[in-house]
Amino acid sequence: MQVYKFGGASLKDAENIRRAADIVKNTEDKELLIIISAIGKTTNALEQVTTKYFHKDEKAHELLEDIKTKHFDIIQQLFGNQYPEVYDDINNTFVEIEWVLEDEPQDTFDFIYDQIVSVGELLSSKIVSHYLNFIGITSRWIDARSYIQTDNTYREGRVDWVKTTELVQKSLPTVLTKEIAVTQGFIGNTSENFTTTLGREGSDFSASIFANCLDAKGVTVWKDVPGILNADPKLFDDTIKFEQISYTSAIEMTYYGASIIHPKTIKPLQVKKIPLYVKPFLTPNESGTVIKEEDIPETIPSIIVKKQQQLLTISSKDYSFISERHLKVIFEAFAAVNIHANMMQISALGFTVCFNQDDQKSARFNEMLNNQFNLSYKSDLELITIKNANSETIKKHIDFGRVELEQRSKKDVQFVVS
Ligand SMILES: Nc1ncnc2c1ncn2[C@@H]1O[C@H](COP(=O)(O)OP(=O)(O)O)[C@@H](O)[C@H]1O
Ligand SMILES: N[C@@H](CC(=O)OP(=O)(O)O)C(=O)O
User: Fold this and answer.
1) Ligand nearest to the CA of 199
2) What is the Rg, in whole angstroms, of the alpha carbon atoms belonging to the chain?
3) 158: which residues sit within 8 A by CB, 6+ positions away?
4) Residue nearest to ligand 2 atom 6, measured at CA
5) Closest-approaching ligand to the CA atom of 9
6) DSSP letters of 368-390?
7) Lowest-pLDDT choice from 44-58, 178-192, 359-373
8) How far apart are CA 397 and CA 235, in angstroms?
9) Domain 302-417 carries which CATH code?
């Protein structure tokens, strides 16, 4: 059996949902599990609804209404007035969120976020599943929350692999022998039955979780690019496509911030030696890139840019050097507020960390440590990593006048630049 994943960039409108259905129609292996992300930029829009609602701003209703209009426009274009089931189903899904918005916010931001933002994937997967049935491809909509079990780290749910594997293996293989199944990426469920999300762009990871549990033959993520390139084509011209890369190289690229695939996607596939195909959604017959278990020599430099980075320099109040005792306190605070360090450096002046800018997390970190340390922040920076670097590429892409921090290893170089 195969796992397909269609992301929001591909499923951005009615025309592209038709294209996705065509891809499914032309697939030979009919034992197929399809993972769907929220349509277009719906997740960003639902994030805004959550923020407004949390701050008791009436604009939340208006923003939700915009999302509703966009979804019903797509449904109208796909189904006309011929398929009342889809209108009822989507309407009922919106009603659940409208009820949430009627009440005063009682819970933490992260909990509310997951209950609201997860709806993007529920809506899109329902539309795609209904559309496949509408055009004669029998499909069953399944709720990913009945399978993917997580802890209660809202917005970053950690997968309970034992429970998830058990649930998937108990019933999903039988479903898949009978019909194509359509489910949601990005979302999971706690043992108390509350919805969690797996982290932004987590649908690729969902595909890989299902594939691992089902021992799938392969996973295909359909993207709006020809495959994995040596740089993001939105930021660089003259990119080169990789025909194949190893799991290790893909893990490194995603770890450094290549946003083409969610960083947690590769490991569950690597342990089962399941190939991951990154294929172009608009030209599905082209080869794309395959990620697999092989020692594939790499010579082409790859450039990875991570934007919206923050640099935090921590020094002790008495200007003594940062010691192991200090580092213990600092790392405990990072873990407590869920800050992940992208780059770190220790010097006579203090300890410097580069991480993804998140004002809420920084504020919480500040509250915990500003009594004990001097904390100084620089914002809106970029972390540029060059994998398989050579001096020519470094010279071409790095303006040394803007470098705030740098680190070099045997093959890779990293610069934090303003
Ligand atoms: N190395 C890379 N190769 C190809 N695309 C990349 C790379 N790095 C970043 N990207 C970006 O990843 C985007 C596709 O990922 P994403 O938008 O998350 O897709 P989806 O929503 O379908 O999951 C592309 O549009 C491209 O701009
Ligand atoms: N919709 C979620 C999950 C996701 O993975 O989306 P996409 O496949 O479009 O990157 C997000 O935008 O974060």
Assistant:
1) 2
2) 23
3) 150, 151
4) 201
5) 1
6) HHTTTEEEEEEEEEEEEEEET--
7) 359-373
8) 12
9) 3.30.2130.10
Q: How far is it, in rounded angstroms, from Cα 206 to Cα 265? A: 8
Q: Residues with beta carbon inside 6 Å of ligand 1?
A: 7-10, 37, 201, 223-225, 228-229, 231-234, 258-260
Query: What is the Å distance from ligand 1's center to 319 Cα?
Result: 44
pLDDT of residue 202: 96
Q: What confidence tier does 284 reach under pLDDT thresholds 50, 70, 90?
A: very high
Could you give the strand order of the β-sheet that contains 2-6, starting from the edge strand earlier in sequence? Answer: 139-141, 180-184, 32-36, 2-6, 218-223, 276-280, 289-292, 244-246
Whole-number Å distance, alpha carbon 65 to ligand 2 midpoint, is 21
ipTM of the predicted assembly exceeds 0.85: yes
What are the extents of the domains in the chain? 2-292, 302-417
In the reported structure, the alpha carbon of residue 206 is separated from the centroid of ligand 2 by a whole-number distance in angstroms of: 10
- Ligand 2 pocket, residue 263 CB under 6 Å: no
pLDDT digits (tens, 9 = 90+) for 156-207: 999 999 999 999 999 999 999 999 999 999 999 999 999 999 999 999 999 9
Give the fold, CATH level 3, of 2-292: Carbamate kinase (3.40.1160)
Q: What residue's CA is closest to ligand 1, atom 15? A: 260
